[in-house]
Design goal:
By secondary structure, this protein is α/β, with parallel strands linked by helices. Helix content is about 35%, strand content about 25%. It contains 6 helices and 9 strands; from the N terminus they run ββαβαβαββββαβαα. The strands form 2 sheets. A 7-stranded mixed sheet has the order 1-3-2-4-5-8-9, sandwiched between helices. A two-stranded antiparallel ribbon has the order 6-7. A hairpin with a 2-residue loop joins strand 6 and strand 7. The longest helix has 16 residues.
């Protein structure tokens, strides 16, 4: 894993299957400028992490990242997950009250045995679901998650077909990154949507 900055709140960044933690470097800098620490990590089997790629177990890797950060004194988290990282974020947030909120970018309902459609009902923190309009599978999943989740929750759709961090850094990069910062700002110390 890699720490970016320090703050009372750490934003944990969970990557998608066709990338690794390096994909978050630019956005971690944006989070630092907004006053938040960031922590990226590689899921199991994504080098230099050891082991085999076992997608059904990656929520345990995210849980391990949170436990590590807690051992370093971090007490409040937000999680931003791209694609499978977003599905893992929902599973972990379903049983962790210290998570202020989660942001999923193109998270699938299920990927290679990792499923979160039932878990999203248990997430007490704030939820922001992103998907591109022409990424039909992600659009369907985000809508399903949104309908199943309890408030506070938001679902935002953007034109195009970009998926995961391609959406974060693509044609809507400024808008999406600003919305994530506003979302974290809004829930860092309150329970109302901004």
């Amino acid at each position: 894993g890699h720490h970016y900055g320090s703050s009372d709140i750490t934003v944990v960044l969970a990557h998608m299957s066709r990338s690794d933690q390096q994909i978050w470097r630019e956005f971690a800098g944006t989070l630092n400028k907004a006053g938040y620490a960031a922590f990226s990590f590689n899921f199991r089997g994504f080098k230099p992490s050891k082991g085999d790629k076992e997608i059904p177990l990656i929520d345990r890797d995210l849980e391990g990242a949170l436990e590590y950060l807690e051992s370093q004194g971090v007490k409040k988290f937000f999680i931003v997950g791209a694609s499978m990282g977003g599905t893992a974020a929902i599973k972990v947030a379903a049983h962790r009250d210290i998570i202020g909120g989660i942001v999923t970018i193109s998270a699938p309902l299920e990927i290679n045995g990792l499923a979160a459609e039932e878990d999203v009902k248990l997430v007490s923190g704030a939820k922001l679901f992103f998907a591109a309009e022409d990424d039909k599978s992600a659009q369907h999943s985000a809508g399903t998650f949104y309908r199943a989740a309890k408030p506070p929750k938001l679902f935002e759709s953007f034109s195009g077909s970009e998926h995961g961090t391609d959406l974060l850094y693509g044609q809507h990069a400024v808008n999406i990154q600003q919305r994530i910062i506003e979302f974290i700002d809004g829930f860092a110390g309150s329970t109302e949507l901004r």
